[in-house]
Amino acid sequence: MRNIKNRVVLVTGASTGIGLALARQLQRSNFRTVITARKSSLVRFSKEGLTEADNFLIRPLNVTDFESQKPVIDEIEAAWGGVDVLVNNAGISFRSVVEHMTPEDEMEQLRVNYFGPMHLTRLVLPSMRKKRRGHIINVSSVGGMMAMPTMGSYSASKFALEGASEALWYEMRSWGINVSLVAPGFIHSNSFTNVRFTERSHDALSNQSSPYYYYYQHMSRMIAKMMNGAWATPDNIAARIIKVMNQDKPPLRIPATIDAWVFHILRRILPRYVYHHLLYRCLPHIQKWVDDDKNKL
Ligand SMILES: NC(=O)c1ccc[n+]([C@@H]2O[C@H](COP(=O)([O-])OP(=O)(O)OC[C@H]3O[C@@H](n4cnc5c(N)ncnc54)[C@H](OP(=O)(O)O)[C@@H]3O)[C@@H](O)[C@H]2O)c1
User: Fold this and answer.
1) Is 93 an annotated catalytic residue?
2) Which of 67, 78, 148, 185 is 20 to 30 A from 289 (CA-CA)?
3) Which atom of ligand 1 is nearest to the CA of 20?
């Protein structure tokens, strides 16, 4: 294994969930670490007992504010010679059927989950290419390998991230730069409470006369149940990300939970039409979603 001591790691969206767990584990490691969060969320670090030290910096970084990213990267280059491992972890998720999204909602979803990570990646690549080493780790999702009702826009953003990461893997291979997609499935955490609703999806959630009422009710219940019952925790995913950082030849795709592995394999072995029909039948109470006579939960 390569000597990884003193490599410089930059993590986005470290104020909660997986990012926070990763920040805690990196603080105890040999890596030189820069954890970042939106300015308004920085206060959480001191509450969580995370404070700056020689090898551990905390900086504000909103992934949708492209102008603010360069000063952070410039500072790291001046202080530590550049970022060696970029972990694009920050992410948001809209809960909305396609019909209830607006172009602005779609843009917001893509800005955080796709445009932001891509911009940050472009900023760190020149120094990585100069050193002929580096690692881009993009936190994807099972939603990046399959789509579910009420999560179309989230999946679109993660599919985009997966597509660009795959292209980048080819582009960077000759430069000695690795690209990895870590894809968690359901995680035992409160992250589903951070889910965003659009104006129309929020209304439909509590309006029984909405044609989509039962979509939101059943999907929200199922997701909450799966997350509450999941074995994997943000700590497990953070440990998996650190393991990937330490690999000499990290793979491009890393399903990071058991359900992620199951879907990863099913997508590969089942013909698509079989897969889609199977998944459709597994949706909770799917036969009642649009049947007015039986529309009782
Ligand atoms: N939890 C799951 O079950 C799950 C499953 C699969 C994949 N993932 C992926 O894992 C990653 C982490 O998710 P999580 O579960 O840890 O969710 P989380 O607890 O909601 O954390 C998301 C993080 O992203 C940050 N963030 C949001 N918008 C940002 C912006 N514009 N600029 C910078 N930071 C921003 C949030 O900061 P604020 O506190 O400031 O909002 C927060 O720290 C995401 O990419 C997510 O898609 C999660």
Assistant:
1) no
2) 185
3) 43
